Prior knowledge:
Blueprint: H1 17-54, H2 59-80, H3 85-114, H4 119-157, H5 162-177
Helix pairs in contact: 1-2, 1-3, 1-4, 1-5, 2-4, 2-5, 4-5
Amino acid sequence: xxxxxxxxxxxxxxxxxxxxxxxxxxxxxxxxxxxxxxxxxxxxxxxxxxxxxxxxxxxxxxxxxxxxxxxxxxxxxxxxxxxxxxxxxxxxxxxxxxxxxxxxxxxxxxxxxxxxxxxxxxxxxxxxxxxxxxxxxxxxxxxxxxxxxxxxxxxxxxxxxxxxxxxxxxxxxxxxxxxxxx
Length: 182
């Protein structure tokens, strides 16, 4: 009888369990980093849509719209980076609950994908997954840095008059949505 050592213990024999456990962990990490990236990418896409829609507004309405777009984007970044202790605790509880519900489905997907692979093939796959994780984290960090830089520039723009600030805010948003790194 086989011991249960993980979520996907059914497809792991005793000799293969360490490599397969690493594969499982890497797959879970990749999925989490991809979800994080997708969240930030959607935030940038929303900023782009709102920016295009704001072009039809007159100067005063667009000025207010640009300010609110920047504030909302920065707020999303702050909330995703932790926020206050209560909200981050609640978010973590929600994530854990969802993770528990998705565990069997994720385990089945991983099992289907990797059950026929040898240890050597799994090791190669693990290297590829690690590269994907690194690349996805890099892209996410770029988006976070762009939004953080927009926040810094926004705070600095407060010392200018409305016309100059309007032009600066347009430039800040364009810098985020048109970044060649995205």
